[in-house]
Amino acid sequence: MAEASTISFFSTLLPRFQPHSQVSHRPLSLPRKPQVRCSVSAGSTPQNAVAWGCEIESLESASALQSWLSESGLPPQKMGIDRVEVGERGLVALKNIRKGEKLLFVPPSLVITPNSEWSRPETGEVLKRNSVPDWPLLATYLISEASLMESSRWSNYISALPRQPYSLLYWSQAELDRYLEASQIRERAIERINNVIGTYNDLRVRIFSKYPDLFPDEVFNMESFKWSFGILFSRLVRLPSMDGQVALVPWADMLNHSCEVETFLDYDKQSKGIVFTTDRPYQPGEQVFISYGKKSNGELLLSYGFVPKEGGNPSDSVELSLSLKKSDASYKEKLELLKKYGLSASQCFPIQITGWPLELMAYAYLAVSPSSMGENFEEMAAAASNNTISKKDLRYPEIEEQALQFILDSCEASISKYNNGSLDLDVTSPKQLNRRLFLKQLAVDLCNSERRILFRAQYILRRKLRDMRAEGLRENLVQTNPKGINMSIIYHFNRNGNRAIFKAIQND
What we know:
Elements lengths: L58 H13 L7 E5 L5 E5 L8 E5 L14 H9 L4 H14 L7 H5 L13 H7 L5 H22 L15 H14 L1 E3 L5 E3 L8 E2 L8 E3 L4 E5 L11 E2 L6 H8 L13 E6 L7 H10 L5 E6 L6 H11 L8 H8 L12 H21 L12 H50 L7 E7 L5 E8 L2
Parallel strand pairs: 6-9
Antiparallel strand pairs: 1-2, 3-8, 4-5, 7-8, 10-11, 12-13
Helix pairs in contact: 3-7, 6-7, 9-11, 10-11, 10-12, 12-13
InterPro entries: Rubisco_LSMT_MeTrfase_plant, Rubisco_LSMT_subst-bd, Rubisco_LSMT_subst-bd_sf, SET_dom, SET_dom_sf, SET_RBCMT, SETD3_SETD6_MTase
Keywords: Methyltransferase, S-adenosyl-L-methionine, Transferase
GO molecular function: [ribulose-bisphosphate carboxylase]-lysine N-methyltransferase activity; protein-lysine N-methyltransferase activity
């Protein structure tokens, strides 16, 4: 489904502009040879789609892109574009590829960076004079070049980009509320959508409205920015060997993601091109993969619009929300300490199928600790933020049971939010129906993967609590049995791990 090639990166879109960073190489002009066009007229453009690009599964436009890149300096490739099982279209091996072999070698002249030349230089100059940061700058650059069609040096690349990327930016509020009601990804998707809207509105007010000839509304509008940011979220990479320079790398962004692969794109100083090094061999006809980074299924859906098969992502996690209780006598003191270390009264922590981080346990300790442990509050808050020199596993045996029960309660509250019922929404056309079914399947896949992790955590927590309480009962029995009579403990625990029935029987 997704076609991006990116390593793990973090970026926050802010309506407030930050200083523009410089790149380490000069841009070069490219040939302007037009190829196959996939743009459509306004009358035939699908709703909420721009008037350029192609259908996401189009091989014709991708093949035309490869031909143009080859004519423009891309070396002969050991991979070719084809329709694939994972990702609609992707790169497959044309011949045997060895483990440890470097592939691609895309030259810097075929890479889009914040310092690339604009086909309309005056447009770029206005943005740079206003210190527009990299992300909004590149988003505007894509729209500007796309609107010029064959007049742009990047026309063949833009023709091969999906007209409507697989991105949560294209989900409506109703779809997010209905399909992702239980997932923390819903809040992140809404935040991302609002950031994109805020960034566009800031550009429109501060720049576009002052230069209407350079930034006409029919081109630079919310729909086109939704498209360009969707492209950036799914395709922009950071290149470690170029000081973290962000870039769009044509052809390389046809590579799909595999959770089993650990190789990623980077700049190779020796060959002076963008490459990746294979971590396994490939036979002719096999799809070649790279890693988009160690991301959860929710993060992959958020940026790339796909969810790996259940159990197939070792980096998968789900965010568990923990909150201080306002009824806590030490609430204000605890909250001040959390704020001191960059946390809040309600905090999310990632849990995986293999367990949860020490920070989550530290937060739970703080949440349940009585006022009498006030001298330990700061240590707990610091550990919850990972802002501590010591990496030791904090242990407070006197409140460990309460802390585990606190986490279990939060876990089961999260589980209860997942709805097993119908996710159907009203549709008005067969095409819309297909999209709804597709979104529903993505949501079901994500929710299944998140519930799987939560159920595993629930099982582990219940077992820990059961064992702790059983041991506590044994100790109490020994203390109340000074004669040393051999006793057997019969107990039963309810679904939360709490003791429900207990009695002791004297053995003959």
